[in-house]
Amino acid sequence: MKTSKSKQNLSWLGSVTSLLAVATCYGTLAAVSLLSLIGVSVDIDESVLVKLITVLLILALSGMLYSWRSHRHPGPLILSLSAAALLLWVFYGSYSKPLELTGFSLLVIASLWDFRAKRRICTESCDGKNT
């Protein structure tokens, strides 16, 4: 019983870290913008931010793979792989703001889809226990 509870808790890793990667990128941008409005100048090393987001993307993909093993719906995993590939291209290849926005949007959609797939599995298994 304890093992299945820990597996269930770990299955949220992909969705949460995907959303955390988006929040890291755009949250930092928003915080710096707000600070500049009140006269505080902050210099952020973009290469450190890109490396942090890259680590979060790797964690997100690992979590999505783990989550896929529980719900067996390949859509969120495929979409998050595509989003991560696009974002890595934007970060390390040729930067494009529209491609960056597309990559992060796809990552959010994959996370929401993954949440939904997990909820569906949980609902089906809970219904099966009650009958």
| Global outline | elongated
> Total helix count?
5
Q: How many beta-strand runs? A: 0
The separation of the N and C termini measures: 20 Å
The largest pleated sheet is described as: none
Helix % is over 70%
- Helix/strand order, N-terminal first: HHHHH
Structural class: mainly alpha
Describe, in plain words, how this protein is organized in 3D:
The chain is mostly helical and 131 residues long. It has one domain. Helices cover 86% and strands 0% of the residues. It has 5 helices and no strands. It has helices at 2-10, 13-37, 46-71, 74-92, 97-130. It is elongated and about 55 Å long. It starts with a helix and ends with a helix.
Task: Jot down its keywords.
0% strand, 131 residues, mainly alpha, single chain
Brief account:
By secondary structure, this protein is mainly alpha-helical. It is 86% helix and 0% strand.
Give the helices and strands, then pairings.
Blueprint: H1 2-10, H2 13-37, H3 46-71, H4 74-92, H5 97-130
Helix pairs in contact: 2-3, 2-5, 3-4, 3-5, 4-5
